[in-house]
Design goal:
With about 200 residues, the chain is α+β, with helices and mostly antiparallel strands. It has seven helices and six strands; from the N terminus they run αββαααββααββα. β5 and β6 form a beta hairpin. It binds a DNA duplex (16 and 16 nucleotides) through α6.
DNA sequence: GGATATGGGAATTTTG
DNA sequence: GCAAAATTCCCATATC
């Protein structure tokens, strides 16, 4: 566990920088309402809410456990609208895309996580309930919308398509960040990636 | 058999 | 200029 934490520390720093900038740009809207905390010793992670206590989620660490994230997190957040709005309405330039994260490149899995946490994007991509935590699925009808937004976010010259985006997602399988699930349009964040992404919400945010 | 999704090789572009 | 990551193109295969 200790080695693992050391290995992921640098990644975490990069991601935290990204999120700091992200929330800064979004005025930290509603950020105070939901907070993801991780107890590294006990591997216990909780969503906390300012308005009212929320049930403790099963840790994402438990890879084969019940789908705490998919059901509880997304449903709850969708219900409350507690997470910041996605950048989908923005038309970022390449400069802006580069600026996010203080010079660090925006990465696709970060973007997808934002989409997943945005209730407004639920018709495009959503967590898959009743599965292992971190599993998400694209809408067959709106998957191209997600891809297009990703292309806009990156400021690509040519429009991004789902086919191209999925190619990038397959590359993540090599680095172990996202895996393909043997289901149509369905992918899964790796345990480590999911933990890092959720750690965004645990710090000062 | 057609439409769609998936998978991968390889070249190109972008970024740090 | 270089290396790594991401994008792009293209084709083959699998699935419904």
């Amino acid at each position: 566990m200790g080695n693992y934490l050391q290995d992921t520390q640098s990644d975490l720093e990069v991601i935290l920088e990204f999120l700091e900038e992200y929330y800064r740009q979004n005025n930290g809207e509603n950020v105070d309402k939901v907070c993801w905390t991780a107890d590294e010793e006990s591997c216990e992670q909780r969503w906390t809410c300012q308005d009212s206590p929320i049930t403790t989620l099963q840790p994402v660490l438990a890879h084969d456990t019940s789908p705490a994230l998919g059901q509880s997190t997304t449903a709850l957040l969708s219900e409350r609208g507690s997470l910041p709005k996605s950048l989908s309405t923005q038309q970022p330039t390449k400069h802006q895309a580069k600026a996010v994260g203080r010079g660090k490149k925006v990465r696709l899995f970060h973007f997808l996580f934002e989409m997943l946490e945005d209730p407004k994007m639920a018709d495009c991509v959503s967590w898959v309930p009743a599965t292992t935590a971190g599993v998400f699925r694209f809408s067959s009808t709106n998957k191209e919308k997600v891809a297009a937004l990703w292309g806009q976010r990156k400021g690509n010259k040519r429009p991004m398509t789902y086919q191209k985006m999925s190619r990038a997602l397959r590359n993540y399988a090599h680095s172990g960040e996202i895996f393909k699930v043997k289901k149509k349009l369905t992918y899964q964040f790796s345990r480590d990636t999911l933990m890092l992404l959720h750690s965004y919400h645990g710090g000062e945010l």
